[in-house]
Write the structure tokens for this entry.
Amino acid sequence: MAGSTFGKIFQMTTWGESHGQGIGVVVDGCPAGLELNEEKIQKYLNRRKPGQTRYSTPRKEDDLVEIQSGIFEGKTTGTPISMVVYNKTQRSKDYSEIAGYYRPGHADYTFDEKYGFRDYRGGGRSSGRETIGRVAAGAVAIEILKEFGIEVYAYSRAIAGVEIDDTKASRENIMKSPLYMPDLEASDRAEEILEKKMLEKDSAGGIIECVISGMPAGVGEPVFEKLDANLAKAVMSIGAVKGVEIGAGFGVADSFGSQNNDAFVMNDGVMSKKTNNAGGILGGISDGSDIVLRAAIKPTPSIAQTQRTVNREGENIEIEIKGRHDPIIVPRAVVVVEAMAAATVLDMLMLSMTSRIDLMKKFFDK
Amino acid sequence: MAGSTFGKIFQMTTWGESHGQGIGVVVDGCPAGLELNEEKIQKYLNRRKPGQTRYSTPRKEDDLVEIQSGIFEGKTTGTPISMVVYNKTQRSKDYSEIAGYYRPGHADYTFDEKYGFRDYRGGGRSSGRETIGRVAAGAVAIEILKEFGIEVYAYSRAIAGVEIDDTKASRENIMKSPLYMPDLEASDRAEEILEKKMLEKDSAGGIIECVISGMPAGVGEPVFEKLDANLAKAVMSIGAVKGVEIGAGFGVADSFGSQNNDAFVMNDGVMSKKTNNAGGILGGISDGSDIVLRAAIKPTPSIAQTQRTVNREGENIEIEIKGRHDPIIVPRAVVVVEAMAAATVLDMLMLSMTSRIDLMKKFFDK
Amino acid sequence: MAGSTFGKIFQMTTWGESHGQGIGVVVDGCPAGLELNEEKIQKYLNRRKPGQTRYSTPRKEDDLVEIQSGIFEGKTTGTPISMVVYNKTQRSKDYSEIAGYYRPGHADYTFDEKYGFRDYRGGGRSSGRETIGRVAAGAVAIEILKEFGIEVYAYSRAIAGVEIDDTKASRENIMKSPLYMPDLEASDRAEEILEKKMLEKDSAGGIIECVISGMPAGVGEPVFEKLDANLAKAVMSIGAVKGVEIGAGFGVADSFGSQNNDAFVMNDGVMSKKTNNAGGILGGISDGSDIVLRAAIKPTPSIAQTQRTVNREGENIEIEIKGRHDPIIVPRAVVVVEAMAAATVLDMLMLSMTSRIDLMKKFFDK
Amino acid sequence: MAGSTFGKIFQMTTWGESHGQGIGVVVDGCPAGLELNEEKIQKYLNRRKPGQTRYSTPRKEDDLVEIQSGIFEGKTTGTPISMVVYNKTQRSKDYSEIAGYYRPGHADYTFDEKYGFRDYRGGGRSSGRETIGRVAAGAVAIEILKEFGIEVYAYSRAIAGVEIDDTKASRENIMKSPLYMPDLEASDRAEEILEKKMLEKDSAGGIIECVISGMPAGVGEPVFEKLDANLAKAVMSIGAVKGVEIGAGFGVADSFGSQNNDAFVMNDGVMSKKTNNAGGILGGISDGSDIVLRAAIKPTPSIAQTQRTVNREGENIEIEIKGRHDPIIVPRAVVVVEAMAAATVLDMLMLSMTSRIDLMKKFFDK
């Protein structure tokens, strides 16, 4: 069934394969009046583009976005915004070999089981290139959220077992680290491990953390469309993510009520919480604190070491995956997590506008 | 907006508050022909009922389910199944005090912010009693999945910092442990800690693990309606859940590709994987292995210790929450996780029936 | 699949069969703060209740509604409102005969084909009693719309071939006519024909017209969620409706552009249209004029005349349907059309709140 | 909010404006294994293309479709199919005048009210060109339905007040008539009237009829997702449609039960109905007969006669719309109705696959 549309009233619909004509997205439900152009979107796409550092595949892909609809005189019109990035460097010959077997950790086998066959070129629809559409749509969401004083930003919290030290981290550092780690010492150590893993033809995983600040309280729809539930879905839908947590996350499991409860406090007439183990969400509704979530990213499954697997004929074989692949997905996925979180938060912010008759009246009393 | 409906074609819509007339659920999209009666549903509800052990609140609530529609001559008719559990022991007087302040870790503040006021009796809609509807609907899903050879079961993996040892665990043990821990030694140790925490007027958290076995490969709809994405949403929508992971989960973050990749192997013509770090899902699609997921459950926020908070007038105050509350939510939440996982898997199983024209033709060639 | 939920963010989910425990509805997404009680709902239900006049079945059904959740201290809380009408006069024996054959004009055959069997008592889920849930939910919608100055009302435009004369019709007359016709002379003439048809053991059809006044311009979401498209679905989903039209409706087919175009005119700074052939909707968006729609209602299919049909064994047979049935459905369906129109308009009104960033800002600038 | 996606599991998402880069559609949920290429789609697009006859605007638009994704080795892969028709002849200067006023019968005013401003070039998103996406997506649906023995075809039933005589009509004639009327005599008479209206700078309306044959019984989901309800929405969402009816349609209003009921009859073991006033749908579910629906199409609102209207400054003015416009929309809209009906039927056919456990088992017993 259709599974390429995300969101209820701010929606993105993505399309495209790694080696088809291009990767695209239709953003529908974007409110009218946002100043938008290709440069604004490109800025985000550049952060997921390959070839930026030695830790990402050196394939040169320009990944230039074109806006095809939904903008008039520099502003969104409220109608669908179609965006496309044409594929430039499809070299189908590189991928012909993988047509015949199932790469461990990839979706080759499950696509074949589900659909009967698959576009095997570069992973087809299951390629990481699919996230281009997410990032372009998320960029629109982030730009809108800014208009409401809401900021969304993400970074690498841990890479290859090296975690940042919060006391040494700063938001400014994020862009200084090739790994998008806000603690530059941790970044250096992680780089060393990555160098070693590259020599061993191996790959590494990590954790991405995302913060949404400036959130008004009251966003999220109990009991199934809770803000955390939709964030979990949004982030878990990104390839390579195997876990999602909010606030203290899995840490709550060996915590106690007296530690984990966040005391409410009033400071100069402003409601806040002493701690933020809840990660800004109580009962599935934003509480006005920063929303904090984390995603666990698995190591790149494409490694050059010899691996055992099965071919389409059902025979046990050994393979060595050719070509250069990212030894780590985490840095390039940072902006993808940001995009999915932003799209979710915007959609739910909009949905929260109908919670109360008194506030709705304010809206309609023009 | 409406947030009380879950699922696309197998849907549950829940309603009810802790101290209203009752808690109910409408299950819509249930295929016709399933033998169903109240006993089958009650079996599941009994597992979440309070008063079963000394680790759950001693309030006596019968929680007897009534089926009101959708069954004829003992079988589902394909029309909506309405089920209700009437509230018996609403003592609104117990809760009048909490009307005026915001309990830490609860949704009191966020409901007030969102809706302008709240039904404060027993937590109203944000009460754990809301999960009765989920369990009743999930029970229907589990019964249908059995018809297709799919089993769903869950248990406490960790409680109050005590984790099970897989080598000592067995599925039979689950029901022998008052904490639903399949390793009885771990269960004993966890009980000891809970006893201590109860004396300290404190509460504890834990981890629930859920296994879905017998899954056919090919279920899950890239790129947003992936099986793992929907499971994450389903489980994160349960109150008190702060994290969800699939397979190796957060463990992938400090693992390497050579360790984390699951090698495919052919055994006597049957495809399988040597390991199951993927937790049965590759590219968002079931791969035929067991699906394994875990949920982190926070400690019960209602504790009798003195806590600081803010009242509706915006004053900093100190409170002590009266009444007996579960020192741990985990055991009673086990069947809730099971229910939400089952509803998700059934919905996605149904949706996967339209993936291929050749298989669809088989269906329509009557 | 699930088909018993209507609406996107103001949702109703109905359940129940003619001869089960009752008929119910869960209204979800109702904004908090509306004063609501059972009397308000009952007023609408009484208009569709049988036994009101000699043109409706004399079965006595009290059809008293109970609100089970979602209200606290007399106001909606923003959480699901469950409402139920328990069935009182189920006499299953009356219906045992129809179990074995397919009544012409009824859904007996299609239910059997779809689900393999059916609850044949009184039509089961396909009974007109199903509309109780719609009316109860629609009543909530109408009450909310009133808060925004929007009124929804319907009446019988034509019955048994007698159409009202607009120059003789007034809104006050509607409730004076046993057929809910606003032209009392037409009502008398229609009554005469109905009397005759009843003697002939026959039944009649008609047309219901619904007006929505006070609509702001700008409601409706091109290109598929247009206001008229959703109204058409809402109304066509009512049993017995075979056609829906907006404004001039089918009359446009032999009209010309110079006649059918509604000229815009400015009167004292207020935008309006000279005529309203558009029925208040242009390009799928409300234009600020009254919305006018009509539904064609078929004659009651249950008639006492001898009819030919087929039984479950596949044999051609002749039947005479026992029991008293409404000789005309139209009057009782008036409030159902009103309910469905109101639910649709409210849902779309809410959805229109995110069309523009500048207006959204007004909402969030608290 | 997002309104450019249609369908539940077979979905189309359209984008594009009359004078933007192009018009496109993403078809998601298309099952894998259908042989598909651009020629197959183009065949349908050619039927809505302008410049075919003297009754459509002579603007030359090639409207050539490109498939950008979702096809591999000539077959659908089960992933989104993106299709685009680039705009060739956008001459924005032609439309600069209409920026300042509201054309009667058009969506200029409602777009301005809803979004604050509009892309006025050629009607922007509200242009008839928007239907290109619908036709391309509908073509995919029609091709899939063929695989299941289901045919969808439409034609002009009435034009400018001239209706076809069923006894003189044949399916073969449809393509012989420049107006797609299956009764060629009626077609000639309608042409004469159109000629006259063109001289008078006026335009005409009509009725399109659509037949779906080969439908299995059992498709449609009570009580809101009925087959007729979704068809009504689908067709009413097409610009210029002001009414939809099924089977006898508005004719039921002055019919009687004894006339309108369709008797079931068994012929050589095959169930059928003596008449088809129901239009193939009973209780919202297909009954195995042909599905028959009709749509009322309003006269083209763009006419060259002097018209009164209001400009953006709120002044009453007189206008004459420049440029050549279709004197009649009906013939070009025939394939659009066909497309929307097909997309609806396919979606609902897929959804009907989960109605019964016994049939589902057949599917999963591979």
User: Anything to note?
Assistant: The domain at 5-364 of chain C is CATH 3.60.150.10 (Chorismate synthase, AroC fold). The radius of gyration of chain C is 21 Å. The mean pLDDT of chain C is 94.
